[in-house]
Write a structure and sequence with these properties.
Blueprint: H1 12-22, H2 40-54, E1 73-74, H3 79-82, E2 104-110, E3 138-139, E4 147-159, E5 165-178, E6 187-193, H4 200-204, H5 208-214, E7 231-233, E8 240-242, H6 254-266, H7 285-289, H8 305-316, H9 329-340, E9 351-352, E10 366-367, E11 375-377, E12 395-397, H10 407-411, H11 425-431, H12 437-445, H13 448-459
Antiparallel strand pairs: 1-3, 2-6, 4-5, 7-8, 9-10, 11-12
Protein name: C-type cytochrome
Domain Cytochrome c: 329-461
Organism: Marinomonas sargassi
Length: 461
């Protein structure tokens, strides 16, 4: 893909200077290296896209339309604030206000009683009537933020077969303020940390038929694993598409995910998400009536097609880190336990992209994400409060495992599962229920040295 450097508001020299200043040896860039074999021109576009990803946006009106239009209600000012160097977010510790942790999100949806859930029904993403789809803890001048919260943690102890005790924590929300009144009577929540953006372009180009082939919604082979596609409907014609990204597989492509994040998290209009008020609802009059950064020369949006293309390119062409320690005895022993636990039934190691990628460098590539891109029932303990499209509260997309051992090195934090409750990989395993219960039970029966080797294998992916 060729991008023009004659964009009316992109100061290419300034962006590159900002990029150079933002780089520091104290940060690890393992999640944000360009994919191997990238042509020189696209490497430059990759660097520019990273700078757009990292730049701070400002509320309207401002002196530059290149970064104008933040909010009026928003969660953060930069993509990088949520995904530090493409890394995963973390959950607030007790007594910390949620608004101070931009990588932790509170999503809203409409509750459906379990007895009424239907696997054939596609539930629309309605959010809350007043607060929209996500709590926005920050605001521009003249607009009141939506509120704030703190988390408390309930701790339970899990005893392993050899007597080892592991403490597991489960978060619950305590509202400090809800500035537009109470949530709707039927509104429920999902607590989410920002996911790592690793190998996204590769995942985007797994052929649909591969994902469908791995699905087994009726568990026809009777192995207890019944992966389902999240069928996403986002247009008035009711067209169904396979969800790929997000913890519930609610975004159908990198492009869709990025533009939704621009709009919901930063309050920016894009070619696909055209509301300049972002996630504001009609009940938030000051927000809707505030000045915005829509500009004619940007195609009447705030984050225009050129900036979106650059961010899409950066996210799509960021390479997954290479597996490490492949010849170590502990790695090979750990892989044996991974296989015996049947983890690969959902965390499928090997995939191949198709031949119609936006970026030809991604065509026909073999890669190792350790995911099937499908929804699985993970048990009541991990359930969210509401269904979304085809995904029921208990169901989550299989998380890719590549690069999981580098999380702390990249973003300075650990925090696994959708809400960051698990402080270690071991805790994440012990939270597995539902279809993964047998794998969790297998892990609990292992001896200490065997568990260490399995964790070593996972940390090496």
């Amino acid at each position: 893909m060729r991008l023009s450097f004659k964009h009316p508001v992109l100061n290419i020299a300034g962006i590159l200077a900002s990029y150079i200043c933002l780089q520091s040896p104290i940060f690890a860039n393992d999640y944000s290296q360009p994919i191997s074999g990238l042509p020189v021109e696209q490497k430059l576009n990759f660097k520019i896209g990273e700078s757009v990803f990292q730049k701070f946006w400002v509320p309207s009106p401002s002196s530059t339309t290149a970064s104008d239009g933040l909010g009026p209600l928003f969660n953060t000012r930069s993509c990088n604030n949520c995904h530090i160097l493409n890394g995963r977010g973390h959950a607030p510790e007790p007594n910390i206000y949620g608004s101070s942790i931009p990588s932790f999100l509170v999503r809203f949806g409409q509750k459906v009683p379990n007895q009424e859930l239907n696997p054939q029904t596609i539930y629309p993403n309605l959010g809350d009537e007043v607060y929209g789809k996500q709590l926005q803890g920050h605001n521009s001048q003249g607009v009141t933020s939506e509120g704030d919260f703190q988390l408390t943690y309930t701790v339970k102890k899990e005893k392993l077969a050899d007597g080892t005790i592991v403490e597991l924590r489960k978060p619950s929300i305590s509202w400090s303020s809800l500035n537009y009144g109470p949530l709707g009577e039927n509104t429920e929540i999902a607590l989410l940390v920002s996911p790592p953006l690793v190998g996204m372009g590769l995942l985007d180009n797994i052929p649909d038929d591969v994902i469908l082939k791995n699905a087994d919604p009726e568990d026809s082979n009777k192995d207890g694993i019944s992966g389902r596609v999240n069928w996403v409907v986002t247009n008035k014609h009711g067209t169904k598409s396979i969800g790929r990204f997000g913890y519930k597989a609610t975004a159908t492509s990198v492009n869709v995910q990025n533009q939704q994040a621009f709009n919901i998290d930063l309050g920016l209009s894009t070619p696909l998400e055209r509301s300049p008020s972002g996630d504001c609802t009609e009940h938030q009059v000051a927000c809707i009536s505030s000045l915005n950064g829509n500009s004619t020369h940007l195609g009447n949006v705030e984050a225009d097609k050129e900036q979106v293309k650059l961010v899409n390119l950066f996210v799509s062409l960021s390479s997954p880190p290479k597996m490490r320690n492949l010849r170590d005895t502990d790695f090979l022993e750990g892989k044996k336990y991974f296989d015996q636990a049947n983890c690969a039934a959902c965390h499928i190691p090997k995939m191949t992209t198709g031949s119609n990628a936006t970026y030809p460098i991604l065509n026909n590539r073999i890669f190792y994400p350790f995911t099937d891109m499908l929804l699985h029932d993970m048990g009541d303990d991990l359930a969210s409060g509401f269904p979304i499209f085809s995904a029921h509260p208990n169901e989550w997309r299989t998380a890719p495992l590549w690069g999981i051992g580098l999380s702390e090195k990249v973003s300075g934090r650990k925090g696994f599962l959708h809400d960051g409750r698990a402080r270690t990989i071991e805790e994440a395993i012990l939270w597995h229920g539902g279809e993964a219960k047998q794998s969790q039970q297998f892990y609990k029966q292992l001896e200490s040295t065997q568990r260490s080797k399995l964790i070593y294998f996972l940390e090496s992916l």
